[in-house]
Amino acid sequence: MKFQPDRTDAHSITGYGPGWISVGAEKITSSLVLGARGLRMPWPCARFEDLAPAHFAQLAELDAELIIFGSGARGRFAPAQWLQPLMLRRIGIETMDTPAACRTYNILAGEGRNVIAALILEQPAQQG
Predict the structure, then answer these.
(1) Does pTM surpass 0.70?
(2) Would you indicate the residue range of the signal peptide (predicted)?
(3) Within the chain, which residues score under 50 in pLDDT?
């Protein structure tokens, strides 16, 4: 029996590190929303502390079954009331640090799921 990897048309994250991810051959250094079905848009929050309820309301307007929220270099949870727009539309949300979110997104997108990754790409502190 011959094994071959599944082919997928989904955006896939091909690499990541502190303050960046790669989608295909392109290196991205600012926060973004990436969808398995071709969505890709900037997400205006350079740090977790920049988040506001409007960021999650924006995610609720997208056609997704699940949002993978990458909260930066470490796992942090948004206030529950900010997630109400997602809950009202019955869109699931999973929160984890951004590296884990990248891995989880790739697995789910590769399975053909309608998943969106909302990723905060915090820039590393400058060594002085």
Answers:
(1) yes
(2) none
(3) 1-5
Q: How far apart are CA 22 and CA 47, in angstroms?
A: 19
- For residue 35, what are the β-bridge partners? 116
- Whether 128 is in a domain gets the answer no
Domain of 25, in residue numbers: 13-119
Cα pseudo-dihedral 88, 91, 93, 98, rounded to 10: -130
Residue 99 lies in a domain: yes
CATH code for the domain of 101: 3.40.1230.10
Smallest Cα–Cα separation from 73: which of 93, 54, 101? Answer: 101
| pLDDT of res. 9 | 62
| Largest separation between any pair of C-alpha atoms in the chain | 56
